[in-house]
Specification:
heterodimer; A: 133 residues; alpha+beta; 4 helices; B: 271 residues; Beta-Lactamase; Barwin-like endoglucanases; 5 helices; 27% helix; elongated
């Protein structure tokens, strides 16, 4: 039974449409406005925002939604595992940098946000826009 | 310089880095395949394995970013930084008040320097390169003990030699590769209690590495240092293939005092 439920949730993850917004509440709506502005920054490839009731995805390359979604979720999972090991306190952000691109993941007001961008984009600018910095 | 000395040199370097930067709480290095290279004195190997395990998901899915060059996890009380240095990953954990410019300067200068030095001593020591089958095996030419040394000649053990100059008394087998695998239960009426199962692909790789040498048993070591030897066969169920697991009968698990889900080191024993 547990297995079936797990499979279902995985399938649900796969079926997330290109841009999905569920259950818009005011704080989420505010974040979405900020994220849409961030998305317009040069070099930003898109974002994924999730909370317990809603999800919003906007990516330039929809064919990679699953890859981005899994990477984002892996980063949040890693954060949860690593922070207690080294007593890092509450995790503020995790930045994963590749050769040409990077992902900035933050948690704000219970919303898990991952922003994908080219390597030269200034993360501080993004954090300021999200009112986190 | 063999892997052990290499690891020792890096371990000392990591500990020295902590002495220079008191804000660095932990420092250790691992390879892309998850093998631990060296860790400072403060960080238990079990913790290092936990970290590698936690980061695995990111490494696996980082293709969309063209691999992982660096990871920075910032918490309210501290930071964890993973940096790719010459293909190896250095993890440093620093306190919240750490001057990251200073920390980065120290780590990014010292570690590559030690790596370069060690590589110069033995360019193949760290990389898991396949055995060089074409390497010419030199005939042993031991000096007659009765022959007096020339006055200016240094005793052999103090002379620094190029790797190619080192005498090879007999053709030696390549160093056994060590795989870190997750324990999975293996049960059933007809299951022998002294046989573990691992990926057929791994067995094939080992066989190729030893040029067709028969691999019928393996040595299994836990992170607590318990070791046992068992027979080995390939995994039968396709659902377990490529998952990095070792299927283990209960008896072997009891011997090693481990359970399903724990990590063990497995290396082949050559017949």
């Amino acid at each position: 039974m547990a297995k079936r439920e797990k499979k279902k949730s995985f399938q649900e993850a796969l079926e997330i449409p290109e841009t999905t917004v569920l259950d818009e509440n005011p704080s989420v709506a505010g974040l979405r406005v900020s994220l849409d502005e961030i998305k317009a920054f040069e070099g930003v490839k898109g974002y994924i925002m999730r909370n317990t009731t809603s999800a919003a995805i906007d990516l330039n390359d929809p064919s990679k939604i699953i890859d981005y979604a899994i990477l984002s979720s892996s980063a949040f999972d890693a954060t949860q595992e690593l922070a207690p090991i080294f007593e890092l306190g509450d995790a503020k952000e995790i930045l994963v940098e590749g050769k040409n691109a990077k992902m900035l993941s933050v948690v704000t007001d219970g919303n898990k946000i991952s922003i994908f961008m080219k390597k030269n984009v200034d993360c501080e600018k993004i954090l300021k826009k999200l009112h986190i910095a | 310089m063999n892997d052990e000395l290499y690891s020792f040199a890096l371990k000392n370097t990591l500990t020295e880095i902590q002495n220079i930067c008191s804000d660095i709480k932990n420092a250790f290095m691992f390879k892309e395949d998850g093998e631990v290279i060296a860790g400072d004195a403060n960080t238990p190997e079990k913790t290092i394995v936990q970290v590698i395990d936690a980061l695995e998901g990111i490494f696996e899915k980082a293709d969309v970013l063209d691999g992982v060059e660096a990871i920075t996890l910032e918490g309210t009380k501290g930071k964890l930084i993973v940096s790719n240095i010459n293909g190896f990953y250095l993890v440093t954990v620093a306190s919240g008040k750490a001057d990251m410019k200073y920390v980065n300067t120290v780590t990014r200068v010292l570690i590559p320097t030690v790596l370069r030095l060690a590589e110069n001593f033995n360019p193949t020591s760290l990389k898991n390169s396949p055995p060089e089958s074409e390497t010419k095996i030199e005939t042993p030419t031991f000096r007659n003990e009765n022959t007096p040394m020339a006055e200016t000649e240094e005793p052999e053990e103090f002379a620094i030699k190029e790797p190619s100059e080192i005498l090879k008394p007999e053709p030696s087998l390549p160093e056994a590769p060590v795989n870190q695998l997750i324990v999975e239960n293996l049960g059933g009426l007809l299951v022998p209690s002294d046989t573990v199962r691992i990926d057929n692909e791994t067995l094939v790789q080992w066989t190729e590495l030893y040029e067709g040498g028969k691999i019928e048993s393996v040595e299994i070591q836990t992170f607590d240092g318990k070791v046992t030897q068992c027979k080995v066969k390939p995994i039968k169920e396709t659902k377990y293939e490529g998952k990095g697991i070792v299927q283990m009968p209960e008896k072997v698990q009891l011997t090693l005092e481990i359970r399903k889900g724990e990590l063990v080191r497995v290396k082949p024993l050559i017949e």
